[in-house]
Amino acid sequence: MSTPQPSDRAALGRARLAARARRVARIRRTVVAATLSAFVLAWGVIVFDGSMGTTSVAATPTAAPSATDTPSDSSSSTDTSTPAPLTTSQS
Asked: What are the b/e assignments for 50-79, b being 16+ CB within 10 Å?
């Protein structure tokens, strides 16, 4: 059962602290690089694809049915040839 000399223990402690400091520095650099990469990628997508905000879609106007568009059967009061315009709303 031999115990290391005090100077050897101090050197061993300094070596362990230095190794820990290198590991912490490497982890910090990795986190900073990953964060910066994600930020640059997100801005690249925004620049390439445009803003992801609300988009406005212009509705195409539909012509109102005229007197000549009525069916030959006068008992029918609904015109099913023209569908109702589709409206959407985003919440």
From this structure: eeeeeeeeeeeeeeeeeeeeeeeeeeeeee
* pLDDT by position in tens, the chain (length 91): 566 566 799 999 999 999 999 999 999 999 999 999 999 999 999 898 887 666 666 666 666 666 665 555 555 555 566 666 777 777 6
Q: Are 64 and 41 in contact (CB under 8 A)?
A: no
Domain residue limits, the chain:
1-51
pTM here is: 0.45
Angle at CA of residue 56, ends 53 and 59, nearest 5°: 160
